[in-house]
Putative sulfate exporter family transporter
Amino acid sequence: MRSLTEIQQPASITPRVSKILKSKYVPGILFLVAIGILSNSLGRDYPLIGGAVIAIVIGILIRQFLGVPAIFEYGINYTLKKLLKLAIILLGFSLSFAQIFKVGLNSLIIVLVAVVAGVFLTYFVGRLFGLQGNIPLLISLGTGICGATAIATTGPIIKAKDEDIVYAVNTIFAFNVLAVLFYPLIGHLLSLPDNQFGVWAGTAIHDTSSVVAAGYSYSNTAGDASVVVKLIRTLMLVPVAVILSIYISIKSAKMDRGANQVKISKVFPFFIIIFAGAAALNTIAPLPKTFVDTTADLAKFIILMVMASVGLGTNFIKIKSVGIRPLIVGLLSSVIMGSISLILVKVLF
């Protein structure tokens, strides 16, 4: 009869758990969890700045003044490349395609026209100012769709450098703060009705947290309208990510002389498809509020970890070398989005 020490544990569980605990990714992931907890706490205390920007800043400061131990590198890269996809998928459970019908046809037209025009005009302005690399595209997507989330999602797809992502996120952040302060003032000066202001704020302001802050500071009705409209913009991540993936894959295939065809696995961002599936599931059979809230909170926390990993991989000297041109482009893009959205709101409402 075998002793207890000789009895093997279930093969399907113990080796798997042991492998995870001994994984080279664990130290880096735990390090990012710690930064995420700190960023989340500070983000609640300073909502105008937000946890995402704080996470990036903490990451940059650690890299510049303390350095990043090699033991953390695997976990940091894994978070940036893999866990980000999990965060986007989880975010899908908090969305519903039914929201498209709640905002009405006019609101939907405003969102579509403003987003498309804003993205293309911002990209054009960026190139006009001589911005190189992926910064113009990242700023345009962050401006047009959903701020830091759009930048974090599309950055890896277009193979953007960490420095480009950081600059784009910080540019978006700067004008989010201004939007929270000035949009309600402009709304009152123009005597905008609550629904008009809500649609305007939800269409023009970049980041969800800033939309919420500006909308509800105007009124509860405006806040409700702004959140729904902003969620519609977030859903546009699906077609945008797919289009970008197809473009990048075809471009890469053409550059590779040995590639006769584009691989499907490279063309389609499957995590975005799952993201859309999660939103579709919540549309067909609304999920329990507890589950939706939990997955949304987890998604936001993982995004904080991703932002921290971006900061940890950033060379501050390269950021300084870019200069202030991206900030000027960010200012112009914010004015473009705000103006187009306001004109459409006044015409269609």
Observations:
- The chain has one domain: 27-348.
- The chain has a mean pLDDT of 81.
- The CA atoms of residues 198 and 225 lie 5 Å apart.
